[in-house]
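ok trying this again, last paste got cut off
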Amino acid sequence: NLRMVTTWQDTTLDWWAPIAALWVLDADLNLIGSLPRLAEKEVVESVRFDGTIAYVVTFEQVDPLFAIDLKDPTNPIVRSALKIPGFSRYLHLFGDGLLLGIGAHTELVEEEWGTRVSQTGLKLSLFDISDPFNVTESAVTIIDADSTEVEYNHKAAFVDVERGIIAFPTTTWTYDETTGAASLGWHYRVFTWDGTKFTAKTTINLAKSHPSGARLTQSDTSVRAIRVGEDLYVITAGFVNAYGMDSFNQIAQVTLK
């Protein structure tokens, strides 16, 4: 079967009324099961299938993490929905009974015209899915940054389940109130998981490795990383940096021209 989670629009409800939905198709692409209105007025942020279970994050004002039973593909059933602030745009199975989430941390702000959602940083979460239909958020770390490439490209995440290491790039805009000039901060964040909590291991300033004389823009901040032996290689369009994974001190650099 082909299983998909999508956001679609019901034009009869509003000028733009998003609806999150789940669909199951057979080998001939005939629809055999669905949840066409899984969450009305909410968009799909991330999905992770784990055997006969689908974990789906949607978002409007708070983050529902749905656990959907797909054992009977003709009759998908929502078994639980965990609602917490913010939302995960990336989900990664993190060993037995754990689900890693990377996304946005948000707060609800009351204003004269009503309530609005304000993003106040990034969010690293670990969900306990040992009971797949009673999901809880067992740990969370808020990161002072505006965005991460992981939100739209899963290849930007480095996840080493065996060593309990999670790493990814972040970008942060700062503004000079006097001149109005904006500058872009670009960092690579490394976290460890010890079974109970996240620890920020190191924050690498990638902007320092950017080729001299070039103005750093958002399009320059694509990052990939790979572990080779005991070293972590961080690769961008402008350089390859190597770090020892014991202390994450830089041990080598190659500038790409």
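PB: full thing came through this time. The chain has a mean pLDDT of 88.
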